[in-house]
Every structure is written in structure tokens, then in C-alpha cells.
Prior knowledge:
heterodimer; A: 283 residues; alpha/beta; Rossmann fold; six-stranded mixed sheet; 9 helices; 12 strands; 32% helix; globular; disordered N terminus; B: 262 residues; mainly alpha; 88% helix; elongated
Amino acid sequence: MTPPSASGPECLLKFDKVNLKFDEIVALDTVSFELHAGDTRVVLGAAGSGKTTLLKAGIGLIRPDSGKIYLFDQEITGLKEAQLFHIRSGVGVLFQEGGLFDSVTVEENVAYPLLNRAQHAESLQEVEAKVREALRFVELEQTLEQYPSELSGGMRRRVGIARAVVSEPPLVLYDSPTAGLDPITANTIMALIAKERDSTNTANLIVTQRYQDGQLMANFRYNRSSGHLEPVSSNGAEGALGSNPTRTIFMVMKDGRVVFEGTQHELEASQDDYVQKFVPKHS
Amino acid sequence: MLASGDAGARLLDFLKPPVAAIEDFYVLSGRALRNLFRGPHYVDDIAIQMDIIGVGSLPIVILIGFFSGFVITMQMARALEQYGATDQVGQIVAITLVRELGPVLTALLVAGRNASGIASELGSMKVTEQIDAMRALGTDPIQKLVTPRMIATCVMLPMLTIVADFVGLIGGYMIAYFQIGLTTTQYWTNAYQALQYNDLAQGLLKPFVFAFIISLVGCFYGLRTTGGTQGVGLATTKAVVAASVWVFVVTSLLTRIFVNLH
């Protein structure tokens, strides 16, 4: 089992006609897509449409009834749980509520992926330095000794991002990163996700109900020299990658099926009633 | 024919969940035991759990152990008085405590205190996606959460039982000395001579088996929790009830075996 390297294989995540049912409820219905290095895929859909199931199936937390899922070019659908732990350690995941361990401090939470993976070679000093760097990235370095319960919802989400990216994984999955947050905090969270994507060229799978989250990922890029997010049209990137310089693809799910897949422009131009519900009228 | 077919289907539907639960419990137990022989071993977690389960339970075990010996001696002294054999009270207290009451009472206390604690802690982790997060971060939750609790309970419950037995005997001695008027030598010699290797063996084997039951039942119900905080409460209740019932069932079986061996 080859560990995923930082450069990563070209196709990081692939769903091939994946079906999954919970009793009689269809959670995933013939879902197929590919996520390549540097891609951003934004999955929109109503509650219960199968978004979170898709994300969890992507790292083998839930097994599909049929179809195949490939993670870092390895088919994971037939692997045992013990074989999956090693592959999963190459994926960063932010859960809907952060999924932070509430009985340990923020520092221990963020250090967890580094200290608990099968082959960790870093010394404790190196781990501490990486943890500080990850928390500095989300602007929460001062919370090292605090417990998750002492933080606000937005701060917990930011610590969750720090934990997801501390091991510098080539693929990061975000489950509703802005759910339940006020618009300003939600924007801060999405800006951090875009900053992470553009700083390390990671691939992202973002499950969300908010069109604005995808809009930010599609239209903004983090400028390392200025340290700010900038519209993609102003940094000259558009010419190199056509009308989708951030390589952001939108996917809309309904009752476990993918009912739309395409760029932001295609999403906005869609005439499908369900798809249109996710696009604000003024955009 | 149709009616019998329906009844058969209903019976199958009725039996499916408990049979599936038993299967899941065996799978969990098997994986927890298998993890004893393969890494990584979370030594810090084992030490923390030993502190919570062992040291944390010590005061209540001492208290209950003491009063058990206290009460048994009072009751037995009254019964033995009819035969003029109150000087034999140490023997009865020792046998009752070491063979049965010490292991069972300690197990029930630990079940109430720790099976519930384990189930509620793991249940809360389950409903707040911390278990999924652990799996997603490349850690086996059974290796990290279940095996350390199982090891810690298996180490600490026999020790707690020894403490409960000893403190119980002291409780009995207080009554024997101050109320019945036995001498120290009379009581302790009687108690010591009453105990055989068979008694000590079952007195130590039982808590070891109970420890597996308590820890694994607590973890099992915790990891199966669904439905938010209400689900956590339900899992906690189920864990305590199931662990307590199994302690009684298993002690009956083990006592039967040891009685036959004697």
C-alpha cells in the first residue's frame, strides 16, 4: 500500500457508478465523477440529497452497495477497514460540526493527524511547530491551550480546517463548512479554504447548501504576495485556463443522483427548476 | 399455510435485530482482543483509563466493601447464635465475600460507574462525528478507544475486588470484635483457614471475566449510539442494564463450574 505523496497521483478521487441505499432510502444513485489534483468540486444539494454520504463514501467511512470508488488510484471499495486507515491519512477532512475531540485541547486536536498516523517521523518539536503554523494559518494561534467547548462555532470550524490541513494532504474534503454560521464568519471560512487551496495546490471536495461558497471558490484566488483574496479576472490567470481559472466544478445532487455537473456559468444558465433553486436570482 | 408463512416472516423480523446485535458484539470483541497483539498500542490511554476506572472507583468500592462485610457479619452472627457457633462468623464472611459478593458487588459498582461512563463518552463522540473523524484521520477507533478501556478494566477490576474483599473482612471484624466479642485471632484465623485455592481462583477469575463484559458492553452500546443526546442517554441505560444482567448470568455459570470442580 503506497502512501499518498504530497505531489499526489493525477486522479485523487474517482466515483464509478456508485450506488448506496440505507434500508429502502436511496442515498447515492449511480454517482460517477473524478477529482484531479488542483481541482475544486462544489457539491450543492438540499438536506438529505446524499451530499454527506458521498463525502463519507469517498474515504470509505460508508461502503457502497455497488460501483467502485478510487482514492489515490487505489480501489477502496473492497478494502478492509484496517487497510483504509493508511490511505485515509492522506486526506484532510472537515466535518460538519468540526468533529473536534472535545476532551483534548486545540493543540492536541490539531496535532492528532501527525501523532496518530501509522508512519509519523516528526519529533515532538517538529509536530509542535507544524501545529502552530496550522493554527497561525487559521489565525487562532492563541487558542492552543483551550478546549473546543470554549470556542465559538466559527472558531471550531477554523480549528477543524487547521487539523484537516496540518499534515499537508493533497486532497481535502469539507462537509458543509459554513452550515449554521453567520455570513461574515462563513465568508471567513471560505476565504481560508481558498487560501489553503491556492497556497498548497490541494484538491477540494466541498459539500454545501450555499451557492455563495462555490461562487467564492470559483471566482477568487489567494494572492500570496498581497496576502489577500483577489478576483481571478484581475490576476491574469483567466487567460491560461479559459473561463474556469480556478478549475471549480459544480455538482448538484437530488435524491442521491447527480442532476447537474458543470462550471459556474453552466450552473447559472441551467433551466432545471431544482438546479435554479441554488442560484440566487441576482447572480 | 399463508398464516404460518406470515408468522415465520414476523418471527424472522423479530429475531433479526438481536441476532445482528450479538454478531456485532462478537465482531467488536474479536477486534478488541486482536488489537492486543498488534500496534499501535496507546499506552497513555490505557494509563488514563486505569486511573478513571481503578483509582476513580476506589472510594466507592471501599465504602460498599466495608459495609457489605459489616452487614453480613451482623446477619450471620444472628443466625449462627441459634447454633452457638458465632465464633465461625469469620469463615462465612470470608467465603461469601471472596467467592461471590466481593466480585459481584464490585462488578456492579464498576458497571454502574464505568459502563455508563464509557457508553456515554463513546456515544457522545459518535453523535458528534468524533468517531468518524478518528476513522477519517487514519485511526482505528477500536484500537484507540475500546482496547485501552478493556485492558484497563481487566487490570483494575480484579484489584478493586481484592480491595473490596479485604475491606469487607475488616468491616466484618469490626462487628465481630466490638459487637459479638470475638478476639482478633479468632476472627482472622477462622476467616483465613476457611479460604482455599479454589475460592481465591474463582474470586479472581470472576472479576477478570466481568471486566471484559463491562468494558465491551459499555463500548458496544456507546459505538452504536444514534439520535443525539437522547440516544446517548438510552445507550448509557442499556449499557448499565446489559452489563449488570450479564454479570449475574456469568457469575451463575462460573459458580456452577467451580462448585462442580470442588
